[in-house]
Amino acid sequence: MIGSRQIATGLGVGLSIAAIASPASAAICDVNPQGVSFGNYDPLSATALDGVGNINVTCNEVVPFSVSFDQGQGSYAERRMIAGADWLGYNLYINASRAMVWGDGVTGSTVSATGDNVDLPVYGRIPAQQNISAGVYLDSITVTVTY
């Protein structure tokens, strides 16, 4: 039987947040992530599924900072959303072309900015035609802001 399966997916980006201030900095920053929601994934589609989220960094003064992500339940090469014993590969990127993986600065790229209220888009992509079971697939990413 040939049919179409729709898989509901979501991604909680930033359930854990770490802000690391240098000793000389008097700035105080808040980090407010908006998760990447991919919607329904069709494993029979030949097209990758894209989504966009946001990280807002608000500080009490203009400061330079960098934002990095951990690998979640997978690796920087392929993050994984989990549903029971099943997983769905995806990744997060710093650019709309989805060419540069958002990582920890060592195994992937970080984003650097300067300001007191900065919105940073988070671009996500689930590669096409992954053979998975129906379910709700989730991952949690730790966002680290260093200033």
- What fraction of residues sit in β-strands? over 45%
Question: What is the overall number of helices?
Answer: 0
Coarse structural class: mainly beta
CATH superfamily: Fimbrial-type adhesion domain
Q: Can you tell me about this structure?
A:
With 147 residues, the chain is an all-beta fold. It contains no helices and ten strands. The chain has strands at 7-9, 12-20, 29-34, 39-41, 49-69, 79-83, 86-93, 111-126, 136-137, 140-146.
Descriptive key words:
147 residues; mainly beta; seven-stranded mixed beta sheet; three-stranded mixed beta sheet; disordered N terminus
Q: What's the gist of this structure?
A:
The protein has 147 residues and is mainly beta.
Helices and strands in order:
Layout: E1 7-9, E2 12-20, E3 29-34, E4 39-41, E5 49-69, E6 79-83, E7 86-93, E8 111-126, E9 136-137, E10 140-146
Parallel strand pairs: 1-9, 2-10
Antiparallel strand pairs: 1-4, 3-5, 5-8, 5-10, 6-7, 7-8
